[in-house]
Structure formats: C-alpha cells, structure tokens
Amino acid sequence: MFEYLKLQAQYVSNDPNYLECNKQERKKYNNTASEVATCSGTVSFHVINIRTDIEFVFFAGGFETPCILTRSGPMKFSNPNEPLHGHVSSTDSAATSMRLTWVSGSKEPQEVRYGDGRALTSTTTTFSRDDMCTSILPSPAKDFGWHDPGFIHSAVMTGLRPSTAYSYRYGSDSVGWSDKIQFRTPPAGGSDELKFLAFGDMGKAPLDASAEHYIQPGSLSVIKAMTDEVESGNVDSIFHIGDISYATGFLVEWDFFLHLISPLASRVSYMTAIGNHERDYINSGSVYGTPDSGGECGVAYETYFPMPTSTKDKPWYSIEQGPVHFTVISTEHDWAENSEQYKWMERDISSVDRSKTPWLVFAGHRQMYSSTDGLFGTDDKFTKAVEPLLVQYKVDMVLCGHVHNYERTCSVYDSNCLAMPSKDRNGIDTYDHSNFSAPLHAVIGMAGFSLDNFSQPRRWSLVRISEFGYLRGHATMEDINLEFVNSNTRQVQDSFRITKGQK
Ligand SMILES: [Fe+2]
C-alpha cells in the first residue's frame, strides 16, 4: 500500500489527454452497434531510482475509492546501489576544501576521485524510522510516508584552490561510478568578488503527470533558470534559505528533490538554512510546535545537507565567500535573548572583520517584515528579540523566505524607515551604508511554492513582486548589486545596490 502513495498518477478521466487512447478495438456487438470497445495506450513516467521495488497500479475510481484494474507486479531497479545526487557544499571560508554528499543503497564506503588523481573514502550515515518524531496522531514520517533513505555518503575534498574548477566522480567499482562532473570552488573569504544566487521555499514538482503529496509549481522554472546561470559560469555559490524539499514526512520526495537540484548543486557550493518544513514538530524542541515537518524534525535535512555547524540539531553557522560574511541562523530554534543561538549570533556578527569582508548578510528562514498577512504572518517576538542585534552590529542585508513572494524594504528598524535608498546615476535604488542606520530586508521565498498575494502596502515596503524567481547577487569590495530575476521571463524585475559611499 505504501508504494501507491509514492507514485500516484493523475485521475485519467479528469484529464483526457493524459492517456492517449489511440488503438481502438470493438469487442462485442449487439446487431451492428458495438457494446464494448477497448483500446490501448501508453503512459510514460519519469522514475527516480529510489532503491526499493516499485509497482505500477492502474486504477479507476479516484484516490478516494480506487478500483484496481491491473497492476505490474513489483519491479526492481537494475542497480539500487547506484551512487546518485552528489552535491557540494562549503566547509569553511578558506575555500580549500569542499564536502561532497551523495546517496546510495549500499553502506560500504565508496570514493570520490577528484583533481589530478586524488581519492577519498566516504563516511556513511543514515536515519531510521525510529529517528522520526510523532505525536498522538502518527506522523507521515513515522508511518505511511516513511521510505528507507538508503545510505548518505560524504567526503570532504581537501587541498583545493579557491575559485578553481575541478572534476570529480564518485562511487566504487562494485556499485558503479557517477558521470565525471565539473565543479568550481567558491572564492575565499576576503577575496574581492562573489557572484551568488539566493532564494527560499523552492521544493519540487514531478517531471511527468504523477501527483506527489505536495507540489511546488514554480520550482521547475526556477531550477531551469538557475541551471542556465550556473552553466554560463556566472555563479560562485547558492544559498537556499529554508523550506528545502517539502518532503514533510514523505521521505522519498527528498530523492526527487535531490535529483532536480543536481545540475546546480553538483557544480557550485549549495548552502542551506533550515525551515519550518524541515524542523517543526510537536514537542520536538522547535520554537514553533506545528507539525510542518511531517515528523522529520530536522533529521532528514541535516543528513542530506551537512552544513559547517557545531553539532547535531544546532543548524546555525557562518561562512565567508569573497567580500561577504554570511551569518545563517535557524529561525526554528530558540533565538530568544540568552539562548545558545542568540549568544552565538551576537558573537558571530560582532566579530566580523569588516576590512576583510565589508558586507554582512544575515539569513534565516522566517521574515521580520512582510506585507503578506495570514498564515505566514510575522512573529513579532522574533523581530523584537533579534532585530536590535542587526542594527547594533551593522548588518547590511537580511535575507529570508517563508512568505512566497518577493519584497524589499527601506533601511528599517522597529517598523520605521530610518533611511531611504537614493537613485544612483543609472536609476538604481542605492543604500549608502557609509552612513549606516539599519539593514534592508528582502523576502525571497518566491522560488517554487504557490505564490502569496500582498495584503496591504506598508510604509517600510518599497518593492512587492509576486512572481517565481530568485535573487542574483554580485559583491565586490565597493558594493553589492542585487537583482530579482523572474525565472519565467528571465527579466530583472528589481535592482538595488548597497555601497559604502566610495562611488
Ligand atoms: Fe516556511
């Protein structure tokens, strides 16, 4: 029964083009009129290797009252141990080492071979149904959404040079090898240039007519547009700020997500922050006691996306790339004054060497400012607790998601505009931080999840766009240029710039 939940086709009679009935045959006649007609047709599926057997079941009656017409019987993947979904992430600001993480059905150590004949053996980890959270009502993760993740392999490639291309492949002679892939290390912290992409709330969508339990319709166009950017060589690194796959307890959907982001995440550093849909669950230690992770309570996220954090379930870290210091927090873990995370973020942002990395970007999943009310409304307690630190330590820009649209503020503190950007000679909104008053905030949760409308314009809100896309950033020692790119039209729909007044 479990497999039906994982590969559900759409209800054919609702969608006449779904199954093309092109070979018709009349079977039974009553005088000259045919009483029974049959036909045959084909349906194609894009199937991801999920390691366990799958079965195709053809049914009528819809999901509520399915009536099975025929079934294929269990089908095996030819190589359930195939090494798949390799993705790279930074381990530190020197950019001389990079972590590669991949998935396989085999727990035997494998290798990554990279550069000029270097090789490293992987360490493996996994998680079990017992690691999932549940409550009085069983969570999907623990119950009908569980799927064995196989083994997650990881190896840190060392001895690299920053801003340099390397090729690699991973696997072993017994399980097979990945294709040869080329990736590029990001620029070292303190070097003079960084090109990055940032967004939140991307998720996934099927590549065929299948239904998944949770579909983010914009994800495919955003991934395609960003893949084109990566292929053009214009991207050093990517930041995905929470609400990653929306597997939310239907664990096989992590494999679907990892497959989709592979053209991006296998080539440049893919850094993440945790969101409510990865972490939150009742009585599990998350700030918000909602069931949004479907019982995953951060375990799957942490296993698939090992970030340079201090230990398990403390998913906050900082990383420097080029002239930017990124402080990445978890809005889902205690951020109250005197909490461990609060102390860490104060220590981190107060100790940034601004002569080395003049730009300080603070990223976390939930927003402090949004003109969208309702379900994703702002938690004033979070804003009150953390916002003073951002002003005190001169954070230039706050990036967040959670709300599914794009919005940019003035230099804002306590809901007041302390400064407005001015137009530069090209007509671009420019925030002059040589005379710093407060950070600007950008909501960038428009990367896949169904878009949100804006409730009402607020005085601190300068730009509001409800379209799928991503933020493109280009930082130098003098300024950061940022653009909101619409992934469908590829048009830049908002541009702004932060300077320290040198220009
Ligand atoms: Fe969210």
TrEMBL record:
Catalytic activity, reaction form: a phosphate monoester + H2O = an alcohol + phosphate
Boundaries of every Purple acid phosphatase N-terminal domain copy: 83-185
EC number per UniProt: 3.1.3.2
Any Pfam family the entry gives: Metallophos_C
Stretches assigned to the Purple acid phosphatase Fn3-like domain: 8-79
Domain of life the protein comes from: Eukaryota
Oligomer and partners: Homodimer.
Record-given protein name: Purple acid phosphatase
The species this protein was found in: Salix suchowensis
